[in-house]
Amino acid sequence: MKGMTIIVQTITRLVKIFILLYGLYLTLTGHLTPGGGFAGGVVIACLYILLTLAYGRQWALRRFPRRLAGSLDSVGGFIFLIVACLGFGFGGMFFVNFLERFFPGRPFALLSAGTIPLNNIAICLKVAASLFLVFIVMAGARLLEKKDRTYDYKQEEEE
Amino acid sequence: MIQLLPLFVAIPLGAAFLTALAAFKARRLADVGSALATGALLVLAVITIGRQGVYPVGGFLAPLGITLVLDGFSVLLLLIVNGIGFLATLYSISYMERYTSKYKYFTLFLLMIGGMNGVVITGDVFNLFVFLEIASIASYALVAFGGEHEELEASFKYLVLGSVGSGFILLAIALVYGATGQLNMAGIAMALAGTDKHLLIAFASVLFLAGFSVKAALVPFHPWLPDAHPSAPAPISAMLSGVLIKALGVYALARIIFNVLGATPLFGMIVMGLGVLSMTVGVILAVGQWDFKRLLAYHSISQMGYVVLGIGLGMFILASGGDSVVAGTALLGGILHLANHAAFKSLLFFCAGSVEFRTGTRMLKELGGIQEKMPVTRLTCTVASLSIAGIPPLNGFWSKLIIVIATIQAAFTYPGLLVLTAVTVLVSFVTLVSFLKVLRYVFLGALPDAFRKIKESPFFMGVTIVSLALLCAGMGLLLVPAARGAILDPAIEALKQGLGYGSRVLAGM
Amino acid sequence: MVFPLCFALFVVGLYCVLAKRNTVKIVIGLAVMEYATNLFFILLGYRKQPRLADVQAPIRVSVANLDDFFFKAVDPLPQALVLTSIVIGVGVTALALALCIRLYQRYGTFDIDEMRRLKG
Fold first, then answer.
1. Domain residues of chain B, as ranges?
2. Residues of B with CB below 8 A from A89's CB?
3. How many whole angstroms separate alpha carbon A88 and alpha carbon A82?
4. Is residue C84 less than 8 Å (CB to CB) from chain B?
5. Do A34 and C83 touch (CB under 8 A)?
6. Contacts of residue A132 in chain C, CB cutoff 8 Å?
7. In chain C, what are the domains?
8. SS3 helix, strand, coil % of chain A, rounded to 5?
9. pLDDT digits (tens, 9 = 90+) for B71-104
């Protein structure tokens, strides 16, 4: 895939930062307004898909290799689990919202709601990385070639 | 102890992420990490024996939040899942050398174990669905792990049927939520206790039955199993046949019907009917098979029929107000057979894997005469075969005997049930015939020239099959009063309490 | 009234899974079943109100008049559940399509009638 025409490439270059910001906004304010880690992650994954379509697969994979995506996928899941397990140490219970006790925050402030923003960030990482991975793997599969080394395995996203 | 309950889910998931993260650098890390994780899970499972309790996740209490519930039935299933899981990990260390990207295998394997543990300990219907899907998706991918024609075809078939089953389960959950406004199992049980049977609940029960029957591969819903189980790598066949269909199918079905929605006599009869059908059809189809693992897969269907027959008989007697002791006997038979089947069927799949590992084939007609080359495999395979056929000192005999006794006892009240006794004994006999064929064609006879140089299976595989064979020989000891009081009786009590589950869980056990 | 339509949609999906011979169409049928269930779940959250305009999305816009809000808002729990079930659906669909691609590479067809290595 060589990418698309210069018009598409220019427009993509112009809007990409806004898409990224929108995804981050959805993620970071997920505990206040509709959105959250999953929606934000999907938006960010869509940005990468747009870049891949506009600039071609080689370009995208050079900047965001598949192995990095796989690692980020696992890191996201792992952060989620660590936050849940920290509840053991601080709150005495799995998944307990331990930060809320120490930093109560005002309702509707950005820094509030304890561990929920952290979980949102972890989910955003995981969803963005794994959706991008799914797209890249499927786009990379050549339909009629007998020998193909891409192995499609798909990890399910944690909710 | 109850504080450690979430670790059953947290350890395998964490190990899965770490394996995926780190293991393409250091190859041995995946082996060691997975073995450590599953070993730790086994230790935890052993600690849970004889305990019970309720764990509110995140500090939200029972009717509102998600709870994890540990009771007798969960403990038994935790022991089975993590015991077989640990042995399968050990076995995989040697067996999976033939495949590339072993760390992906271990990632999926650990996700599957985490999902099954979650299904077993959760106390929330929707959470059960989530864990069920985690385990199912991991198993779809694992069946396709080889990436050849047969594996992909089997995996696709499994995925389509499994997803239809999951769709039924989700719809049933939605109906239950609509009818009661609760998702917590205890909350639903409280809302339904003492009321008349709502039509919606009956509909939901049927949908649950259909969904979980797909997962448990009972006969009208079985076509995926004989394809999926032989196609997977041997340790995964053992996990699927030995554990997955029990944890996702029979455990979930029994839990939902007994403790959440409430059993009715008609429903018990339907479940019994499914059991008898699976038993006979499975064994009849198994007799004509020439593929070693495919034959074992059909026997899985047949043996699951025994388990479901025992549980359905208990359900029927309890719901129609019969003798509680007879119902207890039937449930004991079903549950003990569930545990026994996990032991001997995993052992058989491991043996089939060892034979395939060394000879490269699993067609019975191409094998033969390898008894001198692989004496350990031969011995353990004989033990397992005699056990599944119900030959006295081994474990399969005791559970089948108890099921037969239960049907005879029940027949005093309902004489028609004597048919069940006859069918049970007959199926057991056909099973014996079928396994004599296996032993004859694999281990006896003339040794083909191609197999002159084969050796005994590698160390880890040998350790696994020997320990499982010892387990098969010794599991009859579970019926000794002390062991029975610790493991089996709490499981039966958990099922017999029926909708009383709700008030007990809400009171924190 | 709307609920039976969800079941109709579910049955349409089931029919698609059972009757179609094309692997991709089977996956579409699975997705339709999934969406029918999700739709049913969402509809369960609706609360009967005198006027339709009174029903609010379960988002708290201000701290004031909380009691009024609790009375009017639709049930938020099904929405959370449906989000989870959509994520699961994405996983299943992605895996199913990956399998379709691999099957096409191996067999050169999407027709399940021609994939018959396994039988018995």
1. 2-506
2. none
3. 10
4. yes
5. no
6. none
7. 2-114 (1.10.287.3510)
8. 65, 0, 35
9. 888 999 999 999 999 999 988 888 887 777 788 8
